[in-house]
Batch of 3 targets.
Target 1
Amino acid sequence: MKKIIITDNAPSPIGPYNQAVLSGNTLYTSGQIAINPETNELVLDSIEAETKQVMQNMKAVLAAADMTFNNVVKTSIFISDMHNFSKINAVYGQYFEEATAPARETVEVANLPKFVNVEISMIAIK
């Protein structure tokens, strides 16, 4: 059985999908981009600010499922320019303990929704 996870503390979906789906003990999140949920505006001041907004959005989705970053077992990071990897990684790393960090892939892509620079999705388990 699946449960749809929705929170006003993260951006509303911009298409036919939900912020996350909980199936049993496993949470599958949709990709988050740097939309500020209070203003509905993109945060693109710097790659660091953009990544922080993405992670804050993901934090809100996890919280709506009564989870934290400690529950995350897998992340997927999509970036538009691999030259930004170290800056994105530095911000991303602030949300995890290195010794228990989730599995992850980071992929450079041609474009992302709304032409942002980074999108992150996660899988978490209770």
Target 2
Amino acid sequence: MTIHQEVHLKGSPRNIYELLLDSARFQAMTGGRAAHISPHEGGEVSMFGGDIEARNVELVPNRRIVQAWRSRVWPEGTYSIVRFELQADGTGTRLTFDQAGYPRSAHAALDEGWAKMYWEPMNRALTHH
């Protein structure tokens, strides 16, 4: 199963790239739950107070973030691949998002969760940046 979403976000690709990889900004954007995000390829990521764990697989500054990403409640060793592709689009950025390799039972929660936990808070954060 896969998730494919395309969203238009306020702010430049650079703003969005930095927001996704800056622990303090991400933590503020997501309501203050602890985030420790390595800005380096191969680096470890922990978000939402440790509920989400990830590792940066590929980082192309201001263009692409690929992470091996998992929820703490998934079976041990289960990782999905998430890909954020950023492209300047008019006054903002077109973000193309793909996720593959997650447990089937998680599909509905993930499909809704990206908008609620990422795109909407990102637009709010980028508007006030």
Target 3
Amino acid sequence: MSGTVKLCTMDELPERGARGFDPGQQGRDTVFVVRREGSVYAYRDICPHLGNTTLPWRKDAYLDGKGETIVCAAHGAHFEITTGLCTSGPCLGESLVRVPLWVSEDGEVLATLEANNNRDENP
């Protein structure tokens, strides 16, 4: 799937929270969005340590208990919310793949997806 898609509205994203989405209708979340301090950040739902491993241990569980970092449940890696950079764990120094994202004037959260945003291998 390529193009621009609506993922949700800002009202549907809790502050200091995250949600996964399946814009390609693959039967699993392939993109997730984090809201922090009124800004939103989107990434592919793939750990850079092993390119076929998704991050959460359950639906929408992308953040640590305090909502301060993104966590890979399989490897224990921690990533900065604003950059996707791994700050601890087996992929230290690597980054999550960012998905271009913006918010429309009426609060819709829109993502620009390329074909490789929904595949399991790293680009």
